[in-house]
């Protein structure tokens, strides 16, 4: 049979109501800006303050970078599509989004395990912390997540590259999500969909189990000790466990629960790509005294009293001239 092969896909977006498009454009533009500012502020603070040059903050800076990547692979395209009538994406760009949607979250899953290992060593083996968490080990704890994410996304992309797309091309989402794209192929993709779910589910399950085991051992250690250092450890653990819950909640629904409705998937996808990256900086800084002190020092260094107002006065003076 003669078919017209698909060269682009149509992203249906979040809502079909045109009246909501300007409001959604404003809201998500502000949220994306907040993601960039918040996460880059954390990276800048950690790199500029020597007191934060520790394994834990090194891993936190990498998570902030991944959060920027998670938000950036689809959000700018979604915001731009809110201003156009026909929301299309080329086949190559769609594959790129599929590559990114598994690379960055897959890497973040494993780097959360790296952070759990760091906290386990710091709390359960404090005397050997600096020996175990050497510079070489820290680099390995970052390279391994990126390597796992790359292998994971390559295996996922292999399911899609050779699929024949010759008819339907409407993706009911604001980005090219692999399960939704494979359903548009001209062949029966039931087995492929199962393999995709199994692949993502395996990585998610292994990472989640490692995190549960790690934090269980840490909590048992914290509970058996009562000291000022353990109080600080509890505060740190609260932030870490909260981030794990926020990350794996939508991840489990999107990739492990294969029969959820499209509307549910859209809400969870927005939460996962927008709200999780914006909440992580808040969670890591609200109860972290070291981060707050470093940010105050950073502010006093670059935003001295009267400096901002002087810049504004100079700008206004130039405009009047």
TrEMBL record:
Membrane topology value: Multi-pass membrane protein
Protein name: Olfactory receptor
Stretches assigned to coiled coil: none
Chief location category: membrane
Domain of life: Eukaryota
PROSITE patterns (UniProt xref): G_PROTEIN_RECEP_F1_1, G_PROTEIN_RECEP_F1_2
Family: Belongs to the G-protein coupled receptor 1 family.
Annotated organism of origin: Sciurus carolinensis
Stored SUPFAM superfamilies: Family A G protein-coupled receptor-like (SSF81321)
Residues of the G-protein coupled receptors family 1 profile domain: 38-284
GO molecular function: G protein-coupled receptor activity; olfactory receptor activity
Signal peptide: none
Subcellular location: Cell membrane; Membrane
Gene Ontology terms: cellular component: plasma membrane
